[in-house]
Amino acid sequence: MTSAWVQTLKLSLPSLKDNTADADRLIQALKSRLGAGDIAVNLDLLRVLPDILRDADYHIRCVLYKDRGGWGISGVLPAEDQAPVLGMAVDLGTTRVVLRLVDLADGRALEESSFDNPQLEVGPDILTRIHHADSQEGQNHLQKLIVDALNKEMAALCASRGVAATDVYLMSIAGNTAMTHLFMGLNPRWIIREPYIPVVNRPVTHRASQLGLCANPGARVFVFPNIGSYFGGDLIAGILYSGLNLREKTAILVDVGTNAEVVLGNKNWMIACAGAAGPALEGGAARMGMMAGPGVIDRVAINPDTFQMDIHTIEELPPVGICGSGLIDLAAQLFLCGMLDIRGKFVVSACGDRLKEIDGLNHLVVVDQQVSATGRDLSISQADIDSLIRSKAAMYTILETLTASVGMAPRDLTRFYVAGTFGSFINPVSAISIGMIPDLKLDCYQTIGNSSLGGAARILESSELFEEVDRIQGSITYLELNVNQDFMNRFSAAKFLPHTDPSLFPSVKIKPM
Predict the structure, then answer these.
(1) What is the full DSSP assignment across 385-421?
(2) Looking at residues 365-381, what average pLDDT do you find?
(3) DSSP letters of 255-300?
């Protein structure tokens, strides 16, 4: 695919025989080049266009954008002016925001940076933020927090490449429905109240200045559409990035974050759903759970004969806690070596002196206080394990219910995309061992990293994908799990390790007791 965001044109010079207006001359040339219908030119550009054209001897570079009405012009520069023409892709995460600077002329990624979402100071979860936005003051506060932070990070990212934020002519932003609303200053109140209605599902393109963003004066911002309250633009971007929408064979895409969000389909159809399986699978429900970072346990192995634990931490520093991938590894290893039974309960005889009772609840010491960075034992409680099992059961049941809705079973899948930070670090063997994901051949699983950012960047790499985003959005059917009785029945069956039906997980071999 090729980008058409930047077009170099040599316009015919005006004369007594050709007295076409400046804007009309430019529009006609672009229509001929792009095979487009009408092309929008805003008033601010019209005011400076005559001088730009004459100073450049009608040899220019045009920077374009798209909205529902078609093409528009966000800037015109002399062709000899070698100032960069840049785009900025943004993954607007609930916890972390990631930016990628892109050269609009050729689609090259130039630089990337990230920062913690400053709305965390209001609350770590979406629900708290939406309640905070119930007042106009609270809504304005949340919007200002994210817009100010984006402006600061954009300026710093551009400066790191020796360019300015005013060189940014086009931005693409992908986030969940609530984050998109809070960024745009839209009232999110009805997203969480029955019947769960967003203000808009297809925000499309707006002037950066309208949103408070400090970019080029003519810059435009494309906001990825959503499918309702619980399926946002970050997933639409993920589909675009994965190529699920182009596949002949049916595949599945899973992104675990605030929720577990899943899309099943191919180039002809897609069906999606979301469920509350996220926090525990990311380590958030365990007392020693935390986000991935230095000193956080990300991998665990247990010797089945000696029960000796081999712990790996990020940057190989003394352990401070455990992240999602480490927690799933730990649960899988405890189960496979017989320290957890099929109900997910600690087996006292196998756990030995690692098992301690604290406040009337069994805790398994994973890291002794003498070697932990905290000076305290790092332990996992029975309640932590129970929470993980509920989450893994929800995850598998989402997959099972979604595939069953189209007459398939999870084992029928030949491609399984796993997105996000969760997907980058998870060990599929461990996830299969606890019955969280289907027992497929390992080469069926493909981790695709930050697919939200990847999809946002793809738009900046190729103007041809603008309409594809609309096509993706229009081809998705959303399956509501809250009223699905099959989901609840399957969920009960999945609350065992790996499942009440072990034939679904033939590769999982449990140590004989």
Answers:
(1) HHHHHHHHHHHHHHHHHHHHTTT--GGG-S-EEEEHH
(2) 91
(3) EESSSEEEEEE-SS-EEEEEES-HHHHTTTTSTTB--S-TTEEEEE
Average pLDDT over residues 457-475: 93
Query: Closest Cα to residue 437, out of 242, 254, 261, 231?
Result: 254
Helices and strands (H and E) in the chain: how many: 15, 22
- How far, in Å, are 24, 25, 28, 205, 209 from residue 39 at the CA level? 10, 12, 9, 15, 21
Q: What is the mean pLDDT of residues 386-410?
A: 93
Residue 366, C-beta contacts closer than 8 angstroms, at least 6 positions apart: 288, 297, 300, 309, 311, 322, 330, 378, 379, 380
Fold of 86-234: Nucleotidyltransferase; domain 5 (3.30.420)
Q: What is the mean pLDDT of residues 100-110?
A: 95
Q: What is the CATH number of domain 6-78?
A: 3.10.20.880
Sign of CA dihedral 197, 198, 199, 204: negative
Give the residue from 414, 398, 462 showing the smallest Cα distance to 248: 414
Distance of CA 183 to the CA centre of its chain: 16
Residue 1 confidence (pLDDT): 44
- pLDDT category at 487 given cuts 50, 70, 90 is confident
Cα distances (Å, whole numbers) of residue 269 to 233, 239, 250, 414: 18, 12, 9, 17
- Quick one: tokens of 212? 């408070």
**Cis status of the peptide bond prior to 410, with omega within 30 of 0:** no
pLDDT of residue 231: 86
Q: Three-state SS for 179?
A: helix
261, 274 contact by CB (below 8 A): yes
The H or E element that residue 44 is part of is helix 43-55
Choice among 136-145, 313-322, 421-430 with the minimum mean pLDDT: 421-430
Among 477, 479, 454, CA closest to 224: 454
Instruction: List the 296-302 sheet strands across, edge first.
Output: 309-313, 296-302, 321-322
Q: What percent of the chain has pLDDT over 70?
A: 96
Phi first, then psi, for residue 106 (nearest 5°) are -130, 0
Q: Is the pLDDT of residue 280 over 60?
A: no
Side chain identity at residue 405, one-letter code: S
pLDDT at residue 195 is higher than 90 = no
pLDDT band at residue 288 under the 50/70/90 scheme: confident
Phi, psi of 289 (to 5 degrees): -75, 145
How many Cβ atoms are within 10 Å of 68's Cβ, its own excluded?
9
Assign domain 242-279+390-504 to its CATH superfamily: ATPase, nucleotide binding domain (3.30.420.40)
Instruction: Tell me if domain 86-234 and domain 242-279+390-504 are identical in fold.
Output: yes
Higher-scoring residue by pLDDT: 2, 32: 32
Asked if 435 contacts 310 with a C-beta cutoff of 8 angstroms, the reply is no
Q: Are 175 and 95 in contact (CB under 8 A)?
A: no
Q: Domain boundaries in the chain?
A: 6-78, 86-234, 242-279+390-504, 284-387
